[in-house]
Write a structure and sequence with these properties.
Metallo-beta-lactamase, Chain A, 20 strands, binds flavin mononucleotide, Rossmann fold, 12 helices, alpha/beta, single chain
Length: about 400
């Protein structure tokens, strides 16, 4: 089914009583008005049908409200929905709440209090709330839901919902991904999909890695071993749910099984670019991923972040621009300090200048403050000295061969 926004939706059975309503958003270009996602994204809502009514888990973005109701009515009579579980108040999962409320003002919205205040502030709707206090359960005859508070696995109100009878964990943003896969479950989770998932983790939840890891541990401690992990973006993990937990854990830690070096540079008139070339020529066997900001190239910053997340060493090279770093590099470091803080990733800094520069000192401080481990740096007037080049090359080489 297609809409005027070039989006479509699909409806699939996930289990005996759970149905997926998935909106494929091909219209969105910049997720959170920031992250370039030509691959698109999905919004996954779920309906659990029981003997005494149904439960809706999460919704879609507001502009797809009409499509949401159209899809919902194919699965269940909206009036039969007794509870709307809001795992996360962000509008990509709650925007259709107003439209839903028009057709069912009696369903009770289940969420943590911060979500209630956010939703009441943003939307006009009449439905009552069941405000959760701590982790607690709710029963609707043959449906038992356990709500697990997972604060700051994106926002302060974020939670997960575990459907005990079928061992399905609805995780909202956690274990989600960008892209619009051909299938709905992890049978189609290939390398490309994994890359989109890592990109999603880094850009959306990157600042909250520690909370993500803590809450993965919390699920373990609470003995929750889901048979199916059903996030609100991307694929449902029903064949191998453990796999997405392992992947997410590895990415949240910034680990990789590849010997990969990432170079991110800006170059206005070629001085930095020629040094980058020399470094790459000196290490012919190395898997370099290079991202450039030049007068005819502007790589996606989100791809640079994603590759840097799993790199063994990161090289950041900047010309001096009005005494400081080039604006593209300044922005990149700013985003690093938000999304990749504290990974202790080995880093090499290169700075070129013409007459006087503070870019090297500023970049060094900013990267150290962001929790990167600066292992070497070189500052040069237009051309790098041979001995500096040699040293930088051997620092990169050593970082690539070091054990994690
Ligand atoms: C717009 C602009 C601003 C610059 N500002 C400075 C500066 O404040 N201090 C300095 O030493 N060099 C400055 N430079 C010189 C460059 O930093 C220097 O030529 C550098 O090596 C350029 O590297 P690239 O060719 O890779 O961009 C500036 C150059 C440009 C084009």
């Amino acid at each position: 089914m297609r809409s005027k926004f070039m989006a479509s939706y699909i409806i699939r059975n996930v289990s005996k009583s759970v149905t997926l309503l998935r909106l494929n958003d091909t219209d969105v270009k910049y997720f959170e008005a920031n992250w370039h996602i030509p691959e698109g994204i999905t919004y996954n809502a779920y309906v659990i049908k029981g003997k005494d009514g149904a439960v809706l888990i999460d919704l879609w973005k507001q502009k797809y409200s009409d499509l949401f109701l159209e899809a919902l009515k194919q699965v269940v009579e909206p009036a039969e929905i007794r509870y709307v579980v809001v795992n996360h108040a962000e509008p990509d999962h709650t925007g259709a709440l107003e439209a839903f409320s028009e057709v069912n003002p009696n369903a009770i919205v289940v969420a943590f209090p911060i979500a209630e205040s956010l939703l009441r502030a943003k939307y006009n709707f009449k439905n009552q709330f069941k405000s959760l206090k701590n982790d607690e359960s709710l029963s609707l005859s043959d449906i038992t839901l356990k709500f697990i508070y997972t604060p700051w696995v994106h926002w302060p109100e974020t939670m997960m919902t575990y459907y005990e009878q079928e061992r399905i964990l609805f995780t909202c943003d956690a274990f989600g991904s960008y892209s619009i896969p051909d299938g709905v479950d992890d049978q189609v989770a290939d390398k490309e999909y994994e890359r989109y998932s890592e990109k999603y983790l880094v850009t959306v939840i990157g600042s909250y890695r520690d909370n993500l890891l803590k809450n993965i541990e919390k699920l373990n401690l609470e003995g929750i071993k889901p048979a199916i992990i059903a996030p609100s973006h991307g694929l449902i993990w029903s064949k191998n749910p453990e796999r997405v937990i392992q992947l997410y854990t590895r990415w949240a830690r910034g680990e990789s099984d590849e010997k990969k070096a990432v170079i991110i540079y800006a170059s206005m008139y070629g001085s930095i670019e020629s040094v980058v070339k020399k470094i790459k020529d000196s290490l012919p066997g190395v898997n370099f991923k290079t991202f450039a900001f030049t007068d005819n190239k502007r790589d996606d910053i989100e791809d640079a972040l994603t590759e840097a997340n799993g790199a063994k060493v990161v090289v950041i090279a900047s010309p001096t621009y009005e005494v400081g770093p080039h604006p593209s590099i300044a922005q990149l470091i700013d985003i690093f300090s938000m999304k990749m803080k504290g990974l202790n990733k080995p880093t090499v800094l290169l700075t070129s200048y013409g007459w006087s520069s503070t870019a090297d000192k500023r970049n060094l401080k900013a990267m150290q403050d962001a929790g990167f481990k600066v292992i070497d740096q070189a500052t040069f007037k237009e051309k790098i000295a041979e001995n500096d080049l040699k040293r930088i090359v051997s620092s990169i080489s050593a970082a690539l061969s070091s054990q994690p």
